[in-house]
Specification:
There is one protein chain. With 268 residues, this protein is α/β, with parallel strands linked by helices. The chain is built from eleven helices and seven strands. Helix 6 runs antiparallel to helix 7 and helix 6 (114-136) packs antiparallel against helix 9 (183-194).
Length: 268
């Protein structure tokens, strides 16, 4: 008789499968997907939620996983890994955090694309000309509408960036004080911001949320569910792996599948 203790069976504490093994809901994919999308279930039964996302097994961190994670402590390695020899991009202020919000690595850095920023500068100067024209005509309403139309998030060569524009606070002010503030006061404030518009052509902040896997096999759907469940607005999700061993999908199609869900899959 073996002395090894068997792990107790995890049972469902609620719902249509109450009292049955947790794994039974794998046979009911509609119910499983519905349950995973319920915020109350994630908040109240966090451990069960994690087990379901991870294909009904505990998360195991191996020495290979830990070795991958430790690479992100080296800023020089991170810089080389991000740039991949691309001399047209510069990065700075690299900051890595670990085991937060359901991800192995949270990576932040500032990026500057030389070629792209030259093109962006032309667009910004054209925008500045429009704003100055509206300002000259004393058409504050037109000026404010032009500012409100400016987007703050965009893709820069595959990097999701957030532009810290000088218009951010003004947008809030325009929306809430447009009908109450004196037009001359609003005009003077906007004129100052317009003259600083070149600020938009500087460094932009990027953030990556990274899931690390030493090997990707046929459990990739569970990995995809886990990353999607921990999605955060204004951050780029990424799967980083060392080996590919799935039999039901090619590596090329796996990358396409994750890309379709706005997740970058990249071999280390």
């Amino acid at each position: 008789m073996s002395n090894e203790k068997q792990k107790p069976t995890v049972v469902m504490p609620i719902g249509k499968y109450k009292g049955q093994p947790l794994s039974v809901i794998e046979l009911d994919p509609n119910y499983k997907d519905w349950l995973l999308n319920q915020s109350w279930f994630r908040d109240k039964f966090e451990n069960l939620h994690t087990l379901i996302i991870n294909n009904f097994s505990e998360v195991s961190e191996t020495p290979d996983h830990n070795a991958m994670q430790s690479l992100f402590l080296d800023e020089n390695w991170v810089e080389d890994w991000i740039l991949e020899g691309n001399t047209n991009i510069k990065i700075r202020n690299i900051n890595s955090r670990f085991e937060q919000d359901g991800f192995d690595v949270m990576l932040y850095f500032d990026i500057f694309n030389i070629e792209k920023n030259q093109k962006n500068l032309a667009a910004l100067l054209a925008l500045k000309e429009k704003l100055l024209l509206a300002l000259k005509k004393s058409d504050v309403d037109e000026l404010e509408n032009l500012i409100l139309e400016q987007k703050e998030n965009y893709l820069l060569d595959g990097y999701l960036t957030t532009i810290k524009t000088p218009f951010n606070n003004l947008k809030w002010q325009i929306k809430y004080d447009k009908d109450e503030s004196d037009k001359e006061v609003r005009k003077a404030t906007l004129e100052t911001e317009i003259n600083n518009i070149e600020y938009l052509n500087q460094w932009h902040r990027c953030s990556y949320l990274i899931e690390l896997k030493p090997c990707i096999g046929d459990d990739y759907p569970a990995i995809l569910r886990r990353i999607k469940a921990n999605y955060q607005y204004q951050s780029q999700s990424m799967l980083v792996y060392q080996q590919f061993a799935a039999s039901g999908i090619s590596e090329e199609n796996l990358i396409k599948l994750f890309k379709k869900e706005n997740i970058i899959a990249r071999r280390l």
